[in-house]
Amino acid sequence: FNMFLPLTIAIASVALATAAPTILRIRTVDGVLRVPLPNDDPNSTLSSILASAGVDLEESDLKCQVGLPGRATNGDNTSSTLDVSTLGTDGQKTASELGLKHGSMITILSPPMPKKKDSEESKSQTNAEVNNNSDRFDPFPDLAKSTSYSAASRRARALSRGVSRGMSYGDISRVRSTMHVVEPQPTGPLTRVYVCQVGAAKFQNHCIVNNHAAKKKSKQTTSSKKKAEQTAGVENRVALLFGTINKERVDQSRKKARTSLSTAREDEKMCEVAKVQAVWEPPLQKPTSNGKHYDDARLLSTYCAGGIPTASTSASKKESPTDRAIRVAGWLGMHPLGWMFSYADDDRHEDGDALPVHGRDAVVGAKLQIESMKRRGREEGCKFVTLALDGRIGATEAFQLSDVCVQMVAENVLSPPSLDEALKSTRFLELEDPFVIS
Protein backbone atom coordinates (compact mmCIF):
# COMPACT_ATOMS: atom_id res chain seq x y z
CA PHE A 1 0.00 0.00 0.00
CA ASN A 2 2.84 2.36 0.80
CA MET A 3 4.40 1.64 -2.57
CA PHE A 4 1.68 3.48 -4.38
CA LEU A 5 1.62 6.55 -2.15
CA PRO A 6 4.47 8.45 -3.89
CA LEU A 7 2.97 7.60 -7.25
CA THR A 8 -0.38 9.04 -6.17
CA ILE A 9 1.27 12.27 -5.04
CA ALA A 10 3.13 12.56 -8.34
CA ILE A 11 -0.05 12.16 -10.28
CA ALA A 12 -1.71 14.85 -8.16
CA SER A 13 1.17 17.24 -8.74
CA VAL A 14 0.95 16.67 -12.48
CA ALA A 15 -2.77 17.33 -12.35
CA LEU A 16 -2.12 20.56 -10.48
CA ALA A 17 0.51 21.59 -13.01
CA THR A 18 -1.77 21.04 -15.99
CA ALA A 19 -4.56 23.03 -14.34
CA ALA A 20 -2.60 26.33 -14.70
CA PRO A 21 -4.32 28.68 -17.25
CA THR A 22 -2.73 29.51 -20.56
CA ILE A 23 -1.57 33.14 -20.54
CA LEU A 24 -1.14 35.05 -23.80
CA ARG A 25 0.59 38.39 -24.30
CA ILE A 26 -1.09 41.08 -26.41
CA ARG A 27 1.31 43.83 -27.55
CA THR A 28 -0.42 47.17 -28.29
CA VAL A 29 0.82 50.72 -28.77
CA ASP A 30 0.12 51.35 -25.08
CA GLY A 31 2.10 48.39 -23.78
CA VAL A 32 1.86 44.63 -23.27
CA LEU A 33 -1.30 43.07 -21.81
CA ARG A 34 -1.45 39.58 -20.33
CA VAL A 35 -4.78 37.84 -20.79
CA PRO A 36 -5.79 34.20 -20.19
CA LEU A 37 -6.97 32.04 -23.03
CA PRO A 38 -10.81 32.17 -22.92
CA ASN A 39 -12.05 29.09 -21.06
CA ASP A 40 -8.56 27.69 -21.59
CA ASP A 41 -9.97 26.30 -24.83
CA PRO A 42 -7.53 25.79 -27.73
CA ASN A 43 -10.49 26.24 -30.10
CA SER A 44 -10.96 29.86 -29.00
CA THR A 45 -10.93 32.22 -31.97
CA LEU A 46 -8.49 35.05 -32.42
CA SER A 47 -11.34 37.59 -32.25
CA SER A 48 -12.45 36.33 -28.83
CA ILE A 49 -8.87 36.50 -27.55
CA LEU A 50 -8.45 40.12 -28.69
CA ALA A 51 -11.89 41.05 -27.38
CA SER A 52 -10.95 39.75 -23.92
CA ALA A 53 -7.94 42.11 -24.04
CA GLY A 54 -10.21 45.09 -24.79
CA VAL A 55 -9.12 45.55 -28.40
CA ASP A 56 -11.66 47.41 -30.56
CA LEU A 57 -12.58 44.99 -33.34
CA GLU A 58 -14.70 47.56 -35.18
CA GLU A 59 -11.70 49.26 -36.76
CA SER A 60 -11.60 48.84 -40.51
CA ASP A 61 -7.81 48.38 -40.75
CA LEU A 62 -7.09 46.27 -37.63
CA LYS A 63 -4.30 43.80 -38.27
CA CYS A 64 -2.05 41.72 -36.02
CA GLN A 65 0.78 39.23 -36.12
CA VAL A 66 1.81 36.35 -33.89
CA GLY A 67 5.17 37.21 -32.36
CA LEU A 68 7.12 40.44 -32.60
CA PRO A 69 6.61 42.52 -35.76
CA GLY A 70 9.17 41.89 -38.48
CA ARG A 71 10.33 38.61 -36.98
CA ALA A 72 9.39 35.18 -38.30
CA THR A 73 7.85 32.74 -35.87
CA ASN A 74 7.44 28.98 -35.85
CA GLY A 75 5.12 27.77 -38.54
CA ASP A 76 4.01 29.27 -41.78
CA ASN A 77 0.65 30.33 -40.42
CA THR A 78 2.01 32.57 -37.72
CA SER A 79 4.56 34.56 -39.73
CA SER A 80 2.06 36.38 -41.94
CA THR A 81 -0.10 39.38 -41.14
CA LEU A 82 -3.57 38.50 -39.88
CA ASP A 83 -6.55 40.66 -40.86
CA VAL A 84 -8.96 40.69 -37.91
CA SER A 85 -11.04 43.65 -39.08
CA THR A 86 -14.74 43.40 -39.83
CA LEU A 87 -13.93 42.64 -43.46
CA GLY A 88 -11.22 40.06 -42.72
CA THR A 89 -11.58 36.31 -42.08
CA ASP A 90 -8.51 35.67 -39.93
CA GLY A 91 -10.43 36.51 -36.79
CA GLN A 92 -12.12 33.12 -36.95
CA LYS A 93 -8.86 31.17 -36.75
CA THR A 94 -8.43 29.22 -33.54
CA ALA A 95 -5.55 29.27 -31.08
CA SER A 96 -4.52 25.75 -32.08
CA GLU A 97 -4.41 26.70 -35.77
CA LEU A 98 -2.19 29.68 -34.97
CA GLY A 99 0.04 27.63 -32.70
CA LEU A 100 -0.62 29.78 -29.65
CA LYS A 101 0.86 28.39 -26.45
CA HIS A 102 1.47 29.63 -22.95
CA GLY A 103 3.46 32.88 -23.23
CA SER A 104 2.84 33.42 -26.95
CA MET A 105 2.70 37.04 -28.09
CA ILE A 106 0.19 38.65 -30.45
CA THR A 107 1.27 42.06 -31.78
CA ILE A 108 -1.33 44.62 -32.87
CA LEU A 109 0.19 46.30 -35.90
CA SER A 110 0.07 50.08 -36.29
CA PRO A 111 -2.13 51.39 -39.09
CA PRO A 112 -0.25 51.97 -42.34
CA MET A 113 0.90 55.44 -43.32
CA PRO A 114 -1.62 57.32 -45.46
CA LYS A 115 -1.26 56.75 -49.15
CA LYS A 116 -0.71 59.46 -51.68
CA LYS A 117 -4.40 59.54 -52.51
CA ASP A 118 -5.34 60.03 -48.86
CA SER A 119 -2.77 62.78 -48.49
CA GLU A 120 -4.18 64.51 -51.55
CA GLU A 121 -7.67 64.30 -50.09
CA SER A 122 -6.49 65.73 -46.79
CA LYS A 123 -4.61 68.41 -48.70
CA SER A 124 -7.79 69.31 -50.61
CA GLN A 125 -9.70 69.50 -47.32
CA THR A 126 -7.01 71.78 -45.93
CA ASN A 127 -7.19 73.94 -49.04
CA ALA A 128 -10.97 74.12 -48.68
CA GLU A 129 -10.58 75.27 -45.10
CA VAL A 130 -8.02 77.86 -46.19
CA ASN A 131 -10.41 79.09 -48.87
CA ASN A 132 -13.16 79.46 -46.29
CA ASN A 133 -10.78 81.43 -44.10
CA SER A 134 -9.77 83.57 -47.07
CA ASP A 135 -13.41 84.55 -47.58
CA ARG A 136 -13.60 85.62 -43.93
CA PHE A 137 -12.97 89.28 -43.16
CA ASP A 138 -10.37 89.67 -40.41
CA PRO A 139 -10.76 93.03 -38.68
CA PHE A 140 -7.34 92.61 -37.03
CA PRO A 141 -5.14 90.37 -39.22
CA ASP A 142 -2.32 90.38 -36.65
CA LEU A 143 -4.60 88.55 -34.20
CA ALA A 144 -6.21 86.22 -36.75
CA LYS A 145 -5.76 82.45 -36.59
CA SER A 146 -5.37 80.54 -39.85
CA THR A 147 -7.14 77.51 -38.38
CA SER A 148 -9.37 76.89 -35.40
CA TYR A 149 -8.32 75.09 -32.25
CA SER A 150 -10.79 72.26 -32.91
CA ALA A 151 -9.42 71.59 -36.40
CA ALA A 152 -5.80 71.74 -35.21
CA SER A 153 -6.53 69.43 -32.29
CA ARG A 154 -8.26 66.87 -34.53
CA ARG A 155 -5.36 66.93 -36.98
CA ALA A 156 -2.78 66.48 -34.20
CA ARG A 157 -4.67 63.53 -32.73
CA ALA A 158 -4.98 61.93 -36.16
CA LEU A 159 -1.25 62.25 -36.82
CA SER A 160 -0.35 60.82 -33.41
CA ARG A 161 -2.70 57.85 -33.77
CA GLY A 162 -0.77 54.64 -33.90
CA VAL A 163 2.38 56.23 -32.47
CA SER A 164 3.33 54.89 -29.06
CA ARG A 165 4.72 58.20 -27.84
CA GLY A 166 1.52 60.15 -28.56
CA MET A 167 1.64 63.93 -29.09
CA SER A 168 5.02 65.61 -28.73
CA TYR A 169 5.68 68.94 -27.06
CA GLY A 170 5.97 70.46 -30.50
CA ASP A 171 2.49 69.20 -31.43
CA ILE A 172 1.06 70.58 -28.21
CA SER A 173 2.78 73.92 -28.83
CA ARG A 174 1.36 74.13 -32.35
CA VAL A 175 -2.14 73.38 -31.08
CA ARG A 176 -1.68 75.96 -28.33
CA SER A 177 -0.71 78.62 -30.89
CA THR A 178 -4.19 78.38 -32.45
CA MET A 179 -5.85 79.62 -29.24
CA HIS A 180 -6.62 83.30 -28.78
CA VAL A 181 -5.11 85.08 -25.78
CA VAL A 182 -7.42 87.49 -23.96
CA GLU A 183 -5.52 90.10 -21.99
CA PRO A 184 -6.23 93.65 -20.83
CA GLN A 185 -5.99 96.27 -23.56
CA PRO A 186 -4.84 99.53 -21.94
CA THR A 187 -6.05 101.98 -24.60
CA GLY A 188 -8.41 102.15 -27.53
CA PRO A 189 -8.58 104.29 -30.66
CA LEU A 190 -10.89 106.82 -28.96
CA THR A 191 -10.29 108.75 -25.76
CA ARG A 192 -13.58 110.60 -25.22
CA VAL A 193 -17.17 110.38 -26.39
CA TYR A 194 -19.63 113.28 -26.56
CA VAL A 195 -23.31 112.41 -26.90
CA CYS A 196 -26.15 114.73 -27.84
CA GLN A 197 -28.24 115.15 -24.71
CA VAL A 198 -31.48 115.65 -26.62
CA GLY A 199 -31.00 112.49 -28.68
CA ALA A 200 -30.13 110.37 -25.65
CA ALA A 201 -33.16 111.71 -23.74
CA LYS A 202 -35.51 110.89 -26.62
CA PHE A 203 -34.06 107.40 -26.88
CA GLN A 204 -34.61 106.82 -23.16
CA ASN A 205 -38.15 108.22 -23.42
CA HIS A 206 -38.96 105.74 -26.21
CA CYS A 207 -37.94 102.89 -23.90
CA ILE A 208 -40.58 103.87 -21.33
CA VAL A 209 -44.01 102.39 -21.98
CA ASN A 210 -47.28 103.42 -20.30
CA ASN A 211 -45.59 106.26 -18.46
CA HIS A 212 -48.59 108.53 -19.05
CA ALA A 213 -50.79 106.40 -16.78
CA ALA A 214 -48.87 107.54 -13.74
CA LYS A 215 -49.62 111.23 -14.32
CA LYS A 216 -52.49 112.66 -12.34
CA LYS A 217 -53.74 116.16 -11.74
CA SER A 218 -53.94 115.68 -7.98
CA LYS A 219 -50.89 116.05 -5.80
CA GLN A 220 -49.00 112.87 -5.03
CA THR A 221 -46.95 111.93 -2.04
CA THR A 222 -43.37 110.71 -2.32
CA SER A 223 -44.38 107.08 -1.88
CA SER A 224 -47.08 107.33 -4.53
CA LYS A 225 -44.59 108.86 -6.95
CA LYS A 226 -42.18 105.98 -6.41
CA LYS A 227 -45.01 103.53 -6.95
CA ALA A 228 -45.93 105.26 -10.20
CA GLU A 229 -42.33 105.06 -11.39
CA GLN A 230 -42.27 101.34 -10.65
CA THR A 231 -45.44 100.72 -12.65
CA ALA A 232 -43.85 102.29 -15.74
CA GLY A 233 -42.40 99.44 -17.82
CA VAL A 234 -39.22 99.49 -19.90
CA GLU A 235 -38.89 97.98 -23.36
CA ASN A 236 -35.24 97.76 -24.26
CA ARG A 237 -34.29 99.10 -27.67
CA VAL A 238 -31.23 99.57 -29.89
CA ALA A 239 -30.07 102.53 -31.95
CA LEU A 240 -27.33 103.40 -34.41
CA LEU A 241 -25.18 106.41 -33.58
CA PHE A 242 -24.14 108.95 -36.22
CA GLY A 243 -21.53 111.62 -35.81
CA THR A 244 -17.95 112.59 -36.53
CA ILE A 245 -14.45 111.76 -35.29
CA ASN A 246 -12.45 114.80 -34.24
CA LYS A 247 -9.16 115.59 -32.57
CA GLU A 248 -8.71 117.67 -29.45
CA ARG A 249 -6.09 118.27 -26.83
CA VAL A 250 -5.73 115.67 -24.13
CA ASP A 251 -5.42 118.34 -21.45
CA GLN A 252 -8.75 120.16 -21.40
CA SER A 253 -7.97 122.28 -18.33
CA ARG A 254 -8.55 126.03 -18.32
CA LYS A 255 -6.13 128.27 -20.15
CA LYS A 256 -3.15 129.10 -17.99
CA ALA A 257 -1.14 132.28 -17.93
CA ARG A 258 1.31 132.21 -20.77
CA THR A 259 4.54 134.06 -21.50
CA SER A 260 6.91 134.24 -24.39
CA LEU A 261 8.84 131.31 -22.90
CA SER A 262 5.80 129.01 -22.64
CA THR A 263 5.56 125.91 -24.82
CA ALA A 264 3.56 126.36 -28.01
CA ARG A 265 0.08 124.83 -27.88
CA GLU A 266 0.76 123.04 -31.14
CA ASP A 267 3.16 120.77 -29.28
CA GLU A 268 0.51 119.58 -26.81
CA LYS A 269 -0.64 116.01 -27.06
CA MET A 270 -3.79 115.41 -29.11
CA CYS A 271 -6.35 112.62 -28.94
CA GLU A 272 -9.28 111.43 -31.02
CA VAL A 273 -12.83 111.82 -29.74
CA ALA A 274 -16.23 110.72 -31.02
CA LYS A 275 -19.03 113.27 -31.20
CA VAL A 276 -22.46 111.62 -31.45
CA GLN A 277 -24.78 114.13 -33.11
CA ALA A 278 -27.72 111.89 -34.08
CA VAL A 279 -29.37 108.75 -32.66
CA TRP A 280 -31.32 106.63 -35.13
CA GLU A 281 -33.61 103.80 -34.04
CA PRO A 282 -34.50 101.07 -36.55
CA PRO A 283 -38.26 100.87 -37.05
CA LEU A 284 -40.51 97.96 -36.10
CA GLN A 285 -38.40 96.75 -33.17
CA LYS A 286 -39.95 93.85 -31.27
CA PRO A 287 -38.27 93.27 -27.89
CA THR A 288 -38.76 89.77 -26.46
CA SER A 289 -39.56 88.52 -22.95
CA ASN A 290 -41.84 91.48 -22.16
CA GLY A 291 -39.26 93.97 -23.34
CA LYS A 292 -36.32 92.49 -21.42
CA HIS A 293 -34.23 91.59 -24.49
CA TYR A 294 -33.79 94.18 -27.22
CA ASP A 295 -34.34 93.30 -30.87
CA ASP A 296 -30.80 93.28 -32.22
CA ALA A 297 -31.83 91.36 -35.34
CA ARG A 298 -33.68 94.41 -36.59
CA LEU A 299 -30.39 96.33 -36.72
CA LEU A 300 -28.00 93.53 -37.69
CA SER A 301 -30.14 92.22 -40.53
CA THR A 302 -30.15 95.59 -42.31
CA TYR A 303 -26.77 97.06 -41.38
CA CYS A 304 -24.50 94.00 -41.54
CA ALA A 305 -26.28 92.24 -44.41
CA GLY A 306 -26.53 95.33 -46.54
CA GLY A 307 -22.84 95.72 -47.24
CA ILE A 308 -21.33 98.70 -49.00
CA PRO A 309 -24.03 100.19 -51.24
CA THR A 310 -23.08 100.59 -54.90
CA ALA A 311 -24.93 101.73 -58.00
CA SER A 312 -25.57 98.14 -59.15
CA THR A 313 -26.82 96.93 -55.77
CA SER A 314 -29.04 99.97 -55.33
CA ALA A 315 -30.72 99.30 -58.67
CA SER A 316 -31.33 95.59 -58.02
CA LYS A 317 -32.09 95.73 -54.31
CA LYS A 318 -34.61 97.78 -52.41
CA GLU A 319 -32.99 100.25 -50.07
CA SER A 320 -33.47 99.36 -46.39
CA PRO A 321 -34.29 101.98 -43.75
CA THR A 322 -30.78 101.60 -42.32
CA ASP A 323 -29.14 102.25 -45.68
CA ARG A 324 -31.41 105.24 -46.18
CA ALA A 325 -30.40 106.64 -42.78
CA ILE A 326 -26.70 106.15 -43.63
CA ARG A 327 -27.17 107.92 -46.97
CA VAL A 328 -28.94 110.90 -45.39
CA ALA A 329 -26.30 111.10 -42.64
CA GLY A 330 -23.61 111.18 -45.33
CA TRP A 331 -25.19 114.28 -46.82
CA LEU A 332 -24.77 115.95 -43.43
CA GLY A 333 -21.13 114.88 -43.08
CA MET A 334 -21.82 112.12 -40.52
CA HIS A 335 -21.22 108.39 -40.51
CA PRO A 336 -21.97 105.45 -38.15
CA LEU A 337 -19.53 105.51 -35.24
CA GLY A 338 -21.27 103.32 -32.67
CA TRP A 339 -24.47 101.91 -31.31
CA MET A 340 -26.59 102.26 -28.18
CA PHE A 341 -28.72 99.77 -26.26
CA SER A 342 -30.88 100.09 -23.21
CA TYR A 343 -31.21 97.76 -20.24
CA ALA A 344 -33.34 97.47 -17.14
CA ASP A 345 -31.78 94.43 -15.46
CA ASP A 346 -31.03 94.61 -11.76
CA ASP A 347 -28.00 92.34 -12.12
CA ARG A 348 -26.09 94.69 -14.42
CA HIS A 349 -24.51 96.31 -11.35
CA GLU A 350 -24.83 93.46 -8.89
CA ASP A 351 -21.39 94.26 -7.50
CA GLY A 352 -19.03 97.19 -7.66
CA ASP A 353 -16.91 95.79 -10.50
CA ALA A 354 -19.76 94.55 -12.72
CA LEU A 355 -20.13 96.23 -16.11
CA PRO A 356 -23.48 96.83 -17.79
CA VAL A 357 -22.17 95.25 -21.01
CA HIS A 358 -22.99 91.54 -21.09
CA GLY A 359 -21.65 88.85 -23.39
CA ARG A 360 -24.53 89.18 -25.84
CA ASP A 361 -24.00 92.94 -26.02
CA ALA A 362 -20.30 92.43 -26.81
CA VAL A 363 -21.10 90.05 -29.70
CA VAL A 364 -23.66 92.45 -31.20
CA GLY A 365 -21.27 95.39 -30.87
CA ALA A 366 -18.43 93.39 -32.43
CA LYS A 367 -20.56 92.45 -35.45
CA LEU A 368 -21.52 96.08 -35.97
CA GLN A 369 -17.89 97.18 -35.67
CA ILE A 370 -16.79 94.53 -38.18
CA GLU A 371 -19.33 95.86 -40.66
CA SER A 372 -18.17 99.41 -39.99
CA MET A 373 -14.56 98.34 -40.70
CA LYS A 374 -15.71 96.76 -43.96
CA ARG A 375 -17.44 99.98 -45.02
CA ARG A 376 -14.86 102.55 -43.88
CA GLY A 377 -11.64 100.54 -43.70
CA ARG A 378 -9.84 98.96 -40.77
CA GLU A 379 -8.15 102.14 -39.57
CA GLU A 380 -11.28 104.31 -39.44
CA GLY A 381 -13.91 101.64 -38.86
CA CYS A 382 -12.32 100.49 -35.60
CA LYS A 383 -13.28 103.84 -34.03
CA PHE A 384 -16.55 102.43 -32.81
CA VAL A 385 -18.23 102.95 -29.43
CA THR A 386 -20.84 101.03 -27.45
CA LEU A 387 -23.20 103.02 -25.22
CA ALA A 388 -25.17 101.26 -22.46
CA LEU A 389 -28.16 103.27 -21.25
CA ASP A 390 -30.21 102.48 -18.16
CA GLY A 391 -33.76 102.65 -19.47
CA ARG A 392 -35.13 103.50 -16.01
CA ILE A 393 -33.06 106.58 -15.18
CA GLY A 394 -31.17 107.39 -18.39
CA ALA A 395 -27.64 106.93 -17.01
CA THR A 396 -25.29 106.14 -19.88
CA GLU A 397 -21.81 104.57 -19.95
CA ALA A 398 -19.46 104.35 -22.93
CA PHE A 399 -17.26 101.37 -23.82
CA GLN A 400 -14.91 100.18 -26.55
CA LEU A 401 -14.48 96.51 -27.42
CA SER A 402 -10.99 95.05 -27.34
CA ASP A 403 -9.34 94.04 -30.60
CA VAL A 404 -9.14 90.36 -29.66
CA CYS A 405 -12.86 90.29 -28.80
CA VAL A 406 -13.78 91.63 -32.24
CA GLN A 407 -11.45 89.16 -33.96
CA MET A 408 -12.86 86.23 -31.98
CA VAL A 409 -16.39 87.18 -33.03
CA ALA A 410 -15.21 87.35 -36.66
CA GLU A 411 -13.90 83.78 -36.34
CA ASN A 412 -17.13 82.58 -34.63
CA VAL A 413 -15.29 81.64 -31.45
CA LEU A 414 -17.93 83.41 -29.32
CA SER A 415 -21.58 82.52 -29.70
CA PRO A 416 -24.39 84.51 -28.02
CA PRO A 417 -26.96 82.61 -25.95
CA SER A 418 -30.32 81.77 -27.47
CA LEU A 419 -33.08 84.02 -26.18
CA ASP A 420 -35.98 82.23 -24.56
CA GLU A 421 -38.13 82.49 -21.48
CA ALA A 422 -35.78 80.25 -19.47
CA LEU A 423 -32.78 82.55 -20.07
CA LYS A 424 -32.19 84.53 -16.88
CA SER A 425 -29.11 86.51 -17.88
CA THR A 426 -27.20 87.34 -21.07
CA ARG A 427 -23.93 87.85 -19.23
CA PHE A 428 -22.39 84.53 -20.30
CA LEU A 429 -21.44 83.26 -23.75
CA GLU A 430 -21.08 79.89 -25.41
CA LEU A 431 -17.60 79.02 -26.67
CA GLU A 432 -16.98 77.21 -29.93
CA ASP A 433 -13.24 76.94 -29.16
CA PRO A 434 -11.27 77.44 -25.92
CA PHE A 435 -9.02 80.44 -25.41
CA VAL A 436 -6.45 81.62 -22.88
CA ILE A 437 -7.04 84.43 -20.37
CA SER A 438 -3.80 86.15 -19.46
Task: List the SSEs and their pairings.
Layout (H helix, E strand, L loop, with lengths): L3 H15 L4 E6 L2 E6 L9 H7 L10 E4 L15 E2 L11 H4 L6 E4 L7 H20 L13 H12 L8 H8 L4 E2 L9 E4 L1 H11 E2 L12 H10 L1 E2 L3 E12 L20 E11 L16 H7 L7 H6 L4 H11 L3 E9 L15 H18 L1 H4 L3 E6 L5 E4 L3 H8 L3 E2 L14 E2 L4 E2 L1
Parallel strand pairs: 1-5, 6-17, 7-11, 12-13
Antiparallel strand pairs: 1-2, 3-4, 3-5, 8-9, 10-11, 10-12, 13-14, 15-16
Sheet-strand content, in percent, reads 15-25%
**Share of helix among residues?**
25-40%
Multimerization status: single chain
Helix segment count? Answer: 14
Walkthrough of the structure:
The protein has 438 residues and is of the alpha/beta class. Helix content is 32%, strand content 18%. It has helices at residues 4-18, 46-52, 95-98, 116-135, 149-160, 169-176, 197-207, 222-231, 297-303, 311-316, 321-331, 359-376, 378-381, 403-410, and strands at 23-28, 31-36, 63-66, 82-83, 105-108, 181-182, 192-195, 208-209, 233-234, 238-249, 270-280, 335-343, 385-390, 396-399, 414-415, 430-431, 436-437. Strands 7-11-10-12-13-14 form a 6-stranded mixed sheet. Helix 5 runs antiparallel to helix 6 and helix 12 crosses helix 14 (403-410). The longest helix has 20 residues, at 116-135. The protein is elongated. The protein starts with a helix and ends with a strand. Mean pLDDT is 77; it is low at 1-17, 211-219 and 226-231.
